[in-house]
Design goal:
AhpD-like; mainly alpha; globular
């Protein structure tokens, strides 16, 4: 089935398990949230359009997205999203966050390639990514030494909590996109995780 993006009028082949709604097709309670993403990003990413079928789920995701990670900065947030996408085999999130990391945060292709394995070209971000990678790979079953290592790298307890929260939030988006096979937006150059390659 073909769909038309309400903003760019592009057409794409829909393969998602649920049809991706336009802003006007979405439930009335979801429309203001979608309008906000359209205003901020210039497009409504397919993930948000798909999840908009449930206004409650969209609201919860949007509020978490807005609230989390302020102490980490946007670059490190994007790095964590690239890493968890790789860990969870989420092609949609890998494509989206690699694009957003480069376009909006100025992250290099080299850095984002390292992010996929829990590293970064930036030493401070590398410590955060190594910790987040262990949390993601081991589903939180980490050692005391892992917490001490990220603390020794200069992260406060608040930031350590934020790293875990951002990783957990990213898992939520990975699970949604893997479950529903969300179509990768035409704006995002399509990438495959190593699990899929």
């Amino acid at each position: 089935m073909y769909i038309e993006d309400s903003l760019t009028n592009r057409r794409s082949l829909t393969m998602a398990r649920l049809p991706i709604l336009t802003k006007d097709e979405a439930p009335a309670k979801s429309q203001p949230i979608l309008q906000n993403y359209e205003k901020v990003l210039g497009v409504i990413p397919n993930f948000f359009a798909l999840i908009s079928r449930s206004p409650d789920a969209l609201k919860a995701i949007a509020e978490m997205h807005a609230a989390l990670g302020k102490s980490l900065g946007h670059k490190t947030r994007e790095r964590i999203h690239v890493m968890t996408a790789e860990v969870n085999g989420c092609n949609y999130c890998l494509s989206a966050h690699t694009y957003l990391g480069g376009k909006l945060q100025g992250l290099s292709a080299e850095d984002m390639e390292l992010n996929r394995t829990g590293h970064s070209t930036d030493p401070q971000a590398d410590a955060a990514l190594q910790f987040a990678y262990k949390v993601a790979q081991n589903r939180g079953h980490i050692d005391d030494a892992d917490v001490e290592a990220v603390r020794a790298a200069g992260f406060t307890d608040e930031q350590i909590v934020d790293i875990v929260a951002e990783t957990a939030f990213s898992f939520i988006t990975n699970i949604f996109n893997n479950t529903f096979k969300t179509d990768i937006d035409a704006t995002f150059p399509p990438l495959k995780t190593r699990k899929e390659a």
